[in-house]
Amino acid sequence: MATSTPTSTITDPIFGDLIYGYFASHAITDGLSVQLDPKLTREVRLNVPVVLTKAAHDSCVAWDRDEAINDVDARGRDLLLVMRGAAIRAVETNSPQTFTLHRVENRTASGDLSGDENGSPVSLVVGPEYFDGTGAPCLVIGFEGGN
Fold it and tell me: How far apart are the C-alpha atoms of 20 and 34, rounded to whole Å?
């Protein structure tokens, strides 16, 4: 169930005080998004939370195979390193930026573990958003065109 929070901390120059908002923190609580480990974001010198839609996380970061060469932290770090330039542009322009990640699929469309070894490119979008009603910033990553 979606949640919203009354707030007057965020003020828009045209519309005034924000009355209700659905923020990244709500999407995390509702299971629609996943926050990357803050330790990983600090490693790549990003000082804001990075949040992925559940679909983007499941496809690009989650890892269920029992292989020592890959894990969730390694995949998360790879994603952060690839998207860092787009994230900087997104913050500078205050608009979403597209980037391409070459990733090995974790699971097939039917939910089975993927046997993919070669990987394939996916287009993702990163943009600045509010993490919560205090106006704290974050970066949100999802698939180009939604999810």
Answer: 22
